Amino acid sequence: MTRLNAAKFAGGAVLAAALLAWVLRGTDPSLVVAHLREVPLPGLVLGLLLAAVLNLGQNVFRVFRWRALLAPVRPGVEFRPMFDAVILGYMTTWIIPGRLGELVRPALLAGRVKLPLGACLGSVLADRVLDAFAVVTLFVVGLVLAPPVAQASEQAGLVWGTAIVLVVAVTVPLVTLLLISVYRKNLERRLEGKTGVIPWIVRTVLSVSRGMDALRQPRLLARALLQTLLVWLFIAAATWVGLWACGAVIPPAGVLVIMPLLVLGIALPTPGGAGGYHLAMKIGLMEFYGIAEPVAISAGFLMHLVVVVPVILLGVVLLAVGRIPVQDLMQAVRQVKELGKVEKTP
Questions:
Q1: What per-residue confidence (pLDDT) applies to 342?
Q2: Are 91 and 311 in contact (CB under 8 A)?
Q3: Among 119, 120, 288, 302, whose CB has the most other CB atoms within 10 angstroms?
Q4: Do residues 20 and 278 make contact, with C-beta atoms less than 8 angstroms apart?
Q5: Does residue 23 lie within any of the structural domains?
């Protein structure tokens, strides 16, 4: 491990510890333990297992959506390498701070099935934009169907404002890349034979823009939107089932209201999203739906395990069964440096 990676890991661990301390501040741990003892064990175990299955199942729809986004580059990419890349990307994200899994996923797929790396990266960016729109749209639906308790109106407004900022933040580069993709061939011709930093940067942007082509085709866009909806409905169902098993009973649509908080929490650069997810769950359950603190804290810890542990275990199995060396994951990240080289458009 390099000094930089060690520093990132240490920084992520310190941030996670600080956030967990904030979650537990002023809380009597015995009350959390007492609540868990009151929850029927069979229902808790079965509920968490079902939540884990549903949460893993959403990755199938992620693969189908990714296939639709990559269709202009290569139609019908094989399911298995795409599924492996999705799971191993998430596994990397949960283990190593810095969201490196977002680079591992496209780079690993590009290397295994010989796809252009830039197009794979662009498709993942489009992937994330669709996720952001889905989370915000479902948040609005949740506010209508399961409005938070009266005292939470200010917090709901804050989450809404944050969600809008995030959508704008991801939409601006998306629209820019879409416009670039329209004029990509002309720009590529102008760059022929040119070297240097500026041509390298422009070639990198042009390469990434290829992953946006599907969003300009109505049929592929419709497929991607449908798969996005299924992804987040599965995540919402998994979260609600898990919360119900933990004794944190809220309206089913209430999960859609706290989802932006959970997304922001688990996106923080800590190992496995630890700390941020727990704090987001506590705030969402207590402030929005009046769930008691011991219940909210226990639900946060158990649901975090449901989200992270199965993916890591499945990732280890895929590494073993597929005989994918761990070094390939880090090599996938290093491949990003090659983006500026000339890529031939098929």
A1: 45
A2: yes
A3: 120
A4: yes
A5: no
Asked whether residue 11 is domain-assigned, the answer is no
Is the Cα dihedral 307, 313, 315, 318 positive or negative?
Answer: negative
What is the average per-residue pLDDT within 307-336? 77
- Quote the pTM value: 0.85
Chain mean pLDDT for the chain: 83
Residue 59 to residue 318: CA distance in whole angstroms:
14
| DSSP codes of every residue in 249-282 | ---TTHHHHHHHHHHHHHTSSSGGGTTHHHHHHH
Residue 336, CA distances (Å) to 105, 177, 178, 236, 276 in order: 12, 18, 21, 33, 28
Three-state DSSP class for residue 89: helix
Question: Model confidence over 49-69: pLDDT tens digits?
Answer: 999 999 999 999 999 999 999
What tokens does 314 get? 């499945």
Asked whether the beta carbons of 240 and 256 are under 8 A apart, the reply is: no
| Residue 9 included in any domain | no
User: Contact at 8 Å (CB) between 211 and 119?
Assistant: yes
Give the pLDDT of residue 343. 46
How far lies 266's CA from each of 1, 19, 178, 279, 304, in Å?
24, 12, 28, 10, 9
pLDDT tens string 142-151:
888 988 875 5
- Closest by CA to 268, choosing from 94, 21, 52, is 94
Question: Residue 232 domain-assigned?
Answer: yes
